[in-house]
Design brief:
single chain; 64% helix; 12 helices; Tetracycline Repressor, domain 2; 237 residues; 0% strand; disordered C terminus; mainly alpha; Arc Repressor Mutant, subunit A
């Protein structure tokens, strides 16, 4: 009996979902094609009807919208924001938590994949660069939005590829630094004993307010227009 036209696309999605979960949990180098197909409930022979090799699979996972954060984490962030909480602080507390450290498959893909993708092919590195750029752009938008920067778009789905506009350069720089700091903290925390991990996480959480300095009403417009962000203003005062 021949397969329906919808069979191949559905099978591909099963493979992508299985691979995404394994990549986030185990990294790039430690995941095999056999493991992916077993996780998807399929045989190895069917893999090559959809992908050329593991690098091709990884690129497809990114292009399919590999989420850096799991659904439970995103749900908690939405709940905090609806309650009027500081999204950035809530994000940092969730990201720099023991739960995230101990459950990589439920967390962000960046700490797990960073070191291994650097040893992979150009296509995998380009796909990973796309993930990092998307993450930093959206974090920059949230930093600017919570500082009430004029002209910031108000309704953007952070889980989409929608292009963000009107974000001052300083916020983009702050976002990259903040992201690098948090990803590094998670990588270190997963490599050391519990006591040391707690110190790393706590110190990094305490540093997050450095990215939340708000300008006053007098300086706000001038600083936004000149490209100076909240951190630059705080440091110059």
């Amino acid at each position: 009996m021949p397969y329906s036209p919808a069979h191949k696309p559905k099978t591909r999605i099963r493979i992508l979902n299985a691979a995404t979960a394994l990549f986030k949990k185990n990294g790039f180098e430690n995941v095999t094609i056999d493991q992916v197909m077993a996780e998807a409930g399929l045989t190895r022979g069917g893999f090559y009807a959809h992908f050329e090799n593991k690098e091709d699979l990884f690129v497809a996972c990114v292009e399919n919208g590999m989420s850096l954060l799991s659904s439970p984490i995103l749900a908690k962030l939405r709940k905090a924001e609806r309650a009027g909480g500081d999204w950035v602080t809530s994000f940092a507390e969730l990201y720099l938590s023991r739960v995230h450290i101990e459950n990589p498959e439920l967390g962000c893909a960046l700490p797990t994949l960073s070191a291994e993708v650097s040893r992979s092919g150009v296509r995998a590195q380009e796909a990973f660069s796309k993930l990092i750029n998307q993450a930093s752009e959206k974090l920059a938008w949230k930093l600017a939005k919570e500082d009430d920067v004029p002209g910031i778009d108000r309704h953007i789905n952070l889980e989409s590829d929608q292009k963000l506009r009107n974000v001052p350069v300083q916020y983009e720089q702050d976002a990259i630094a903040m992201l690098a700091m948090m990803v590094g903290a998670v990588v270190l925390s997963r490599a050391v004993d519990d006591e040391t991990a707690d110190k790393v996480l706590a110190a990094t959480r305490d540093s997050i307010p450095n990215f939340r300095h708000k300008t006053d009403e007098t300086d706000g417009a001038d600083n936004v227009g000149s490209g100076k962000g909240p951190v630059a203003v705080a440091q110059s005062s």
